[in-house]
Structures are given as structure tokens and as C-alpha cells.
Amino acid sequence: MKKIEKAKKFLKENLDLFQCPICQEPFQSVDGNSLVCEEGHNFNISKKGTVHFLTKGVSNEYDTEMLSSRFRIAQAGLFNIMLDEIMEHIEEKNGTTIDIGSGEGSQLDYLSSLGLEGKQIGFDISKDAIALAGSHFTDAFWCVADLAHSPFASKQTDTLLNIFSPSNYQEFKRMLRPNGTLLKIVPDKDYLIELRNVLYRDREEKQSYSNELVVAKFQEHFPESQIYTIRYTFPLTLENYQDLVKMTPLSWGASEEALKYAVAHPLKEITIHVCLLVGKMPG
Asked: How far, in Å, are 100, 140, 165, 171, 235 from residue 116 at the CA level?
């Protein structure tokens, strides 16, 4: 089955998972290659089986080179141990899972390889990211969307994944079913610490990081939340290291001199140190 036909089939069978991002009304039908809401707004389904839900253009710094680097190092296994832990906390493995800020799709695809089934949706504000996801992975439905103008219906999602992505707790609570789960990953103080020390070798104030405010915000919205620490080191080949430097936003704040130093002094391993925050909606 072609990707566009598979996407049309998914949408026809799961119209109840979506809402129009313009008027918030339900979608009524899949008409030809378009998704049409009750007010007549329509969104095209691409040949890759993706849907572009953005109502206006947005700019972001995640270009194809950065996303391709992230794809390659994800395939090398950089985040696998972290994702193994996330999988342990997905209660409804056959339910509806939405990956918020899914990037190029590797994390949702890996969870699928571990046995995540049901209805899987990944979305990102970057059309380049979703183009890559649509090219590489077929188990999930991929779309370009903005959480602030959400195309997802209320109380239809069992599990929300929010991995290294901004939060919108009002939207999270609207989207989750009763007893639904929000799984959020935030960096902890030693996340990519070896690279941070190299990239900010000339800016001592940037060498440390704290997630206290982010964790406190999560606990404010989910007072009964649980917090788990995940920490491990990952061995790096030269190719892995080059991809790591290209894919991390840490590079954006580095001076040109420090970036040149980092490229010339490849690391042999990197630390992954994150917090997994688990929040549950009341039943």
C-alpha cells in the first residue's frame, strides 16, 4: 500500500483523534487527498502520507543537516537506554500514543520496535523533520503541527511523549484521556557534560545546567508525579561524535574558536543524564 493510501486509511478510521487547528471543530471526512472539517477547512495529505497542519509559516533552526545527524546517531543507539526506560512506563501499549516534537521520528520508531502498538502519531513544527520521518518510518502517522494550534481532539490520547521538547500543560491536559499518562524527558545536570565542557571551554557560566524550574513546573501541574533519573555513558566513534556536534543545540551558543576546538578534539564517550517525569491524569 502506498504511503498516501495508508495515511488516508488511518485518518478515515481515526477521525475522532483529530480536530481542525483553525476552528477546533471535528474533521468530517477524507475527501480525495484532503482532510476536511465541519466548517470546510481542508488539509492536504502528501504523497509521503504526511499532513501539514500549520496555518502559517514558522521558522526554526532544525535544518536537514542537523536532523540527518540526529537520525544517524539515534540509529547508532544514543538514546536507546533512555527509551527502554520510557517504554516501561507506557501503560497502554496498545492505546493511542502521540510523540510531541517527534523530530525525525527515531524515538517513536524505536519504541515501536520494543512492542509499542496501537495508534501512533508523531508531530513536529519542522516540516523537514516530518519529511525525514515520513521517508524512513511507516508504523506511525506523521504530521507537521504546532502545539499552540493543536490538530488533536480532546481526551483521546492514552500516552503523550514529551522528549526534549517544550511543554504546553493546558494542551496536554486537554488531549489526555482520564488515567492518561504524560512522559516528559528533560536534561539533568550532566547531560552531554563532556561536550558542554568542550563547547563552552571559554564560557564558564555556560558549563553548568539546572532543570529545577522545569521539574517544578511539571510538579505544579501534576502534583502526584514521579521522577526517575536515567544516567549512562555511550561510546562514540568519530562519525558518532561529528553527528553529535552537529545535532545538539549546544553548538548554537558556542564561539567559533570553541567549535573549531571541539571538532579537532573528538570525544570517545558521552554522558546521557536525564530526568523522566511521569504524570497521570485523574481517572
From this structure: 16, 11, 21, 23, 27
